[in-house]
Amino acid sequence: MEVKSIWELKYKPKNIKEIIGRDDLINNLIKLKDNGNIPHLMFIGPKGYGKLNCAILFAKELLGDSFISNCKVVHASDPLTVEERAIVKQESYVSTKKIGSMAGKQFTWPAFLASRIKPFVEIKPIGEFPYKILIVNDFHTLESEQDGFRRLMEKYSEICRMILITNQISSIIDPILSRCMLFFFNQIDFNSYKNFISNVIKNENLKISDNDLYFLYISTNGKIGETLNLLQQISTKTSNITTDSIHEYVRGSIKLEIKVLTKAILLGDLNLISTKLKIIQSYGYDISTILSEICNEIFNLPLNKYQKATLINLLGDLDYQALNGSDEELQLNNIIYQIISLMKK
After folding, report:
1. Whole-structure pTM over 0.90, yes or no?
2. pLDDT tens for each residue of 130-142
3. What is the CATH architecture assignment of 190-249?
């Protein structure tokens, strides 16, 4: 049985300095570690850009031998089990045997926070290290529980630092954003990608031309894990990696059209926008999917943090408004012209 992730594991970075193409970001994290005073952090960027792996490696660098006992990774998108919900319900009830006005009362605790967050943050760190690290992946999926999470951040900040990971910054409430140092994970540069993947190609006895390597970079949006999985799949049939063999395995070549569309929107090129929209819509993509892909592309563009945050926030609001629209084409055109107007300001 083929194990598709084996190359991804084989070439996975073992420490934070081995992370590819993020020298500035890694240097800033190392400076924080050396200063010894780590704030709450938020890692922002599309899926597949190594946010979670970077958070774990940073926690290992920071905690050293106490990593296992003082670090916890929580996936906010994973549904609670029946047992977890039962425990939360049981603990939210104050027994009638208790003395005081609260005896016999029932409280409503946010289930996710009560079952997966509070038990970890309430306990002091083990050993000499002054605080623990809580990593929350897909943090934006907490939605209404974010305000309760913010209170936990404030209450337990002395003994627990938090690294929150999201690909939807527009879904994060301002009180949490203001309490975190933000790190944006964009697409890595081609030279860093080329140096790493060329080494993999050599080690695995494969062949690829420079042009095909660039096509591989574009097709995978520079995602190392996706590239390794793709190369491993192709290698089961041929050792010669070509544009045709990449085409055969790459899903959603429409991403290339989305990339061009996004740049055309930001430049206000109406003719190119019209051409690309027709191509994309011919694939049957709905508004939400198109907006999601445009949002991913914005992370990769040479915009400052304020511009990216503003655009992504606008896309989130417009996506919500589009859910109630009857004419998808009209709604999409409205969204595009609002982005163009914003970029002209």
Report:
1. no
2. 899 999 999 998 8
3. Orthogonal Bundle (1.10)
